[in-house]
Design brief:
This protein has 282 residues and is mainly α. The protein folds into 2 domains: 60 residues; 217 residues, Orthogonal Bundle (MetI-like fold). Helices cover 75% and strands 0% of the residues. Helix 4 runs antiparallel to helix 10 and helix 9 runs antiparallel to helix 10. The radius of gyration is 25 Å and the shape is globular. The two termini are 49 Å apart.
């Protein structure tokens, strides 16, 4: 008995020390990741125009950002591009992910590698390639009005967003029980009804997660957007980049805070959509 107690006694402080170091590591990681965001949000309410020291609380920075037509146009362009590219990327990525999960065909490995190219190649290379392609077909050089001038950016964002959606959807479908699909067919459902009432509900969490990922990637993309944007198609990241070269002002912080709020709201909505309903729980 004494030997057992002697063996257990040193483990208490050691285990406590490990947990303490783990907590400190987690705290340092979260502080490193989120303290810049907290500072940005705090200084969006700062009265100082130099944005270096805190001088007082004000909401005027949001009014200034709202009354800035160039910043508002860029923000609107980013939201439109993100919405359109997310819609198409979710549709294409969902079908590709379902195809890679369900079917076996010659060259499938090469097809998977080809689908992953937009993820692994550097953004600068993809941006230059897309710019050369759009110039070749005359889309960037032609004088088209809004919103047709956003087309090259939307196409470019779809090109690098849908592989992420396909990966998420395919990972979700790995856990699908094929017997549910077989039972649906045995009960008289046709292929479309089985897809609509059996496969799509199971795919829903993956589709929502993939759509949220595509929306976030599109909303904050700078490199590819910078190369594929034409006259009058400046997005919010590109506009902020042109403004911060003269210094970060509180109105830029205010606009960035609104962008963060939209992303957080989209995340909360996505989590609610992925949450199981009471009927499903029962």
């Amino acid at each position: 008995m004494a030997a057992v107690l002697w063996n257990r006694t040193p483990q208490g402080p050691l285990e406590y020390s490990r947990r303490l170091w783990l907590k400190l590591l987690l705290f340092a990681t979260f502080f490193f990741l989120y303290s810049p965001i907290a500072v940005l949000i705090a200084f969006s309410f700062n009265t100082s125009k130099r944005n270096i020291t805190w001088q007082g609380f004000t909401l005027n920075n949001y009014v200034v950002a709202w009354n800035n037509p160039d910043l508002l146009d860029a923000f609107t362009n980013s939201l439109i591009i993100a919405f359109c590219s997310t819609l198409v990327s979710t549709l294409i990525g969902g079908m590709v992910g379902l195809q890679l999960w369900r079917f076996r065909f010659p060259g499938k490995t090469a097809y998977e590698a080809f689908m992953a190219l937009p993820i692994v190649i550097p953004e600068i290379s993809m941006g230059v390639a897309l710019m050369a392609f759009f110039i070749r077909i005359g889309w960037l050089t032609s004088d088209v009005g809004w919103p047709l001038n956003l087309g090259p950016i939307i196409v470019a964002h779809i090109a690098f967003s849908f592989p992420f959606v396909s990966i998420v959807v395919r990972s979700r479908m790995v856990g699908f029980n094929v017997q549910l699909e077989e039972a649906s067919r045995d009960l008289g459902a046709n292929q479309w009804q089985t897809f609509r009432y059996v496969l799509v509900p199971f795919m829903k969490p993956g589709l929502v997660a993939g759509a949220l990922l595509a929306f976030t990637l599109s909303l904050d993309d700078f490199v590819i957007t910078y190369f594929t944007s034409g006259p009058g198609s400046v997005t919010f990241p590109v506009k902020v980049y042109s403004l911060v070269r003269r210094g970060v002002t509180p109105d830029i912080n205010a606009a960035s805070t609104v962008l963060i709020a939209i992303t957080v709201i989209a995340t909360v909505l996505a989590m609610k959509l992925q949450a199981p309903t009471k009927a499903a729980k029962g």
